[in-house]
Specification:
Elements: E1 4-5, E2 15-23, E3 29-31, E4 33-34, E5 48-51, E6 57-65, E7 72-76, E8 88-93, H1 95-114, E9 119-123, E10 128-133, H2 141-153, E11 158-164, H3 165-170, E12 188-194, E13 201-204, E14 219-226, E15 232-238
Parallel strand pairs: 1-4
Antiparallel strand pairs: 2-3, 2-8, 5-6, 5-8, 6-7, 9-10, 10-15, 11-12, 12-13, 14-15
Helix pairs in contact: 1-2
Bound molecules: zinc ion.
Zinc ion binds next to helix 1.
């Protein structure tokens, strides 16, 4: 059943009220609306809990899409109570974890600005993220860190602009990823725009991001690995480079 994905319009929504629409045989829960982000585009789905009217909690281990992008399944940890269809619940995402993912995800966009090569893969993590680029030449990681931190310090606004799937199809040049599919299939696609009038970057992306680059905080490139002749993997971590052993 199609869900109202509240996080698409408000990345900072950490709690909401919703009604259970489907309970799957394996325990997966669908809701009429949700602030839980479902795994996609290299960003892991949210964890957290659903609170019942009597205060008991249903702890969630992950959130994922169903057969299509407009289905979101909240997956409880083992041994959790099962809600009933029609039951009203209060949703609570693990905000500390999600906020780290938002900061990291935004950092990945900044890295794609500093390294303007085609992206061949990306995975956002709460402690470390990686972005793979189709690039042959070597690049100094401290130089990349310096450029990243300059973009963070400049505190550029990060905003969303919506375009239709058809508009995106007509402008394939705006997609930087070679292997990561843009978030089509819902009729509209969000463009993540960094800087006034996208002066820094714009890229189709369905993930969650912070609203200004300063929120990313201190980050650095921990490692750059050579993956084949034409591929380099960048690992982003939080904190100052000096904290790296
Ligand atoms: Zn993104």
């Amino acid at each position: 059943m199609a869900v109202d994905a509240l996080y698409r319009d408000d990345f900072y929504l950490s709690t909401a009220e919703a009604v259970v629409t489907v309970v799957h045989g394996d325990g997966g829960i669908e809701l009429d609306r949700t602030c839980f982000y479902a795994t996609s585009g290299g960003q892991p789905g949210d964890t957290g809990f659903l609170e019942r009217a009597d205060g008991t909690k249903i702890a969630l281990g992950q959130t994922k899409h169903g057969a299509t992008k407009d289905i979101i399944i909240h997956v409880p940890l083992e041994g959790q109570p099962q809600p009933l269809v029609g039951e009203a619940l209060t949703l609570h995402i693990d905000w500390a974890r999600r906020y780290k993912l938002m900061r990291m995800h935004t950092a990945c966009h900044l890295l794609s600005v500093v390294c303007s090569y085609p992206i061949t893969g990306a995975a956002v993590g709460e402690d470390e993220s990686r972005v793979d680029f189709d690039m042959g030449e070597a690049i100094d990681k401290d130089e990349v860190t310096g450029k990243l931190m300059a973009l963070v310090a400049e505190n550029h606004p990060v905003t969303l602009q919506w375009i239709t799937d058809a508009e995106l199809a007509a402008n394939p040049g705006i997609v930087k990823s070679k292997n990561v599919r843009p978030p089509v299939g819902l009729g509209r696609v969000s463009l993540v725009c960094i800087g006034e009038n996208s002066s820094v970057d714009s890229q189709p992306c369905g993930g969650t991001h912070v609203s200004e680059t300063q929120e990313v905080g201190a980050i650095h490139i921990a490692r750059i690995e050579k993956k084949g002749k034409e591929n380099r993997r960048f690992r982003i971590r939080f904190g100052e480079p000096a904290t790296e052993a």
